[in-house]
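Thread: quick sanity check before group meeting

JM: Hey all, I'm pulling together slides for Thursday and realized we never actually wrote out the predicted structure for the chain we discussed last week. Dropping the sequence here so it's in one place. If anyone has concerns about the input, flag it before I start.
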Amino acid sequence: MLSHRVTSLALIVVLFVSSLWLLSHSLYSGDGSSAWGNRKEGYPPYLNIHQPLESVADLSSRRRRNVAFATSFVMHGDVYMAFARSMGEVMDADGSDDQYIHLFAPEFSFGLQEVVHKLNLWTHRGIRANYDQLMHYVDRSSEEGGIDLIVFGTCEFDMNVWHSALVDAWNARREDDKFKIVCVVHNVADTNWQQHIPYWARRSAIRLLPIADHVAKAFRDKFAVQAESPEPLLYTAGYDYIPVDVHVPVLDIPNLPVKPYPRHLEKAVIQGTLDSNRRDYPRVFKDLISSLREDPGAWGYLPLEGRPSYVADPNSLMPPFRLLLVGSGWLEIPEELADIVSIHTDLPYDQFYRLVADCDVVVPAFADNTYLTVQASSTVALAAELNVPILVTDRTRRAYGYIDDSRAVITRPAAMPEVQALRALRTGNASAFLLSDPADIGQPVGNLRPIRNDVMNMMHEGWVRDRKGWTEWKAGIWRKNRKVAEKILRDLP
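JM (edit): ok, ran it. Output follows.
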């Protein structure tokens, strides 16, 4: 009985050892490599082991080297050429000669071509042609000089122009020779072009590039909702995998004016289309007239005393306040402000830059929440690149992200209208606002401690920003811009 048990145990041991030997030889080849790993189909699916098609190193080393900037839109050249500059700097750092930036766009207007030349915005120059020539170079393979990255300057216009032709070009190119699309976008609420996003998202061939954080957030939030839609055409498109980066179009403008210090706040500027649906000109005019009637001397003017317009006080210790409206279009100015408000339209870029840079403060005067929720204003970047502080609230700072820094902005409480803030900063005295009762409830607005504290903080920081602070702050923006360009050229998410 005992010998029988021993024999059985020995047999079990032999079978067990044999099984281990067979298993080891089935899993591993003679050179020590995994037989499963050598199978073309990869690991068996039941092991649930993720086997990437390419290593991270392979993905990060793959560069887009033949880049086309293209647009059918005549505006926004300063925005997309700022990105071209960032891409050129990344290509410079790489050092390879086989990298090109092509430009397919209408001729630049208002002297932007001179700016592009002076600031060296376009390096690694390739082809310069009208936008209708783009497809001639997309329809080629890489070996034939075909484009491998397309940057649309204003995707709200451009995607509708090129989508069908790009689909044909995509299908004609080899699987290992596809292009990718970067959409410079400005307004989430402009939805007409967005019908084309799913096609490119399914192919991992599109990424978005807004110019401010709040627009990026709005797109990400919208894509997150679409990714969870019950509609199969939406939830299968991979919306939540679309990369959304931010590139801030702040140029390095040379020869900015060196302003004396100390000085009085003399010139404020509102920049943008002369359209009350975009900038709240009526409110600014109303508030300015009201403040002038209350104390014209605070602004450097005499009382009206029967005159149709306010005139400068020749005996004022401060220069008269001026409000410049810079942009395009036409706007009627109230007669009382005829000598205070001036309009400057359709200026060449060099004159435009000089005029705005000579001002003391930029006033956004946004007409509604659009520029804080779904659309970006280039006025904010303009103020930054010209070293002119912009008068904003905490909400605006957070929305745009890159200006959430006291080196670049003047922060007023949300309860303090822009005109009231300008008066306080100009005179160095905020009592007119703090003692006011705009709600007519028998309680001065300054009685609310948080408002009073924020007003005091604004007054303490003042409105003059030093050149060193501007230089350091913008250097940080440019570093981030280059990182974004590097990610895009390397196809990194």
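AS: nice. The first helix runs from residue 2 to 27. The CA atoms of residues 402 and 477 lie 7 Å apart.
JM: adding both to the slides.
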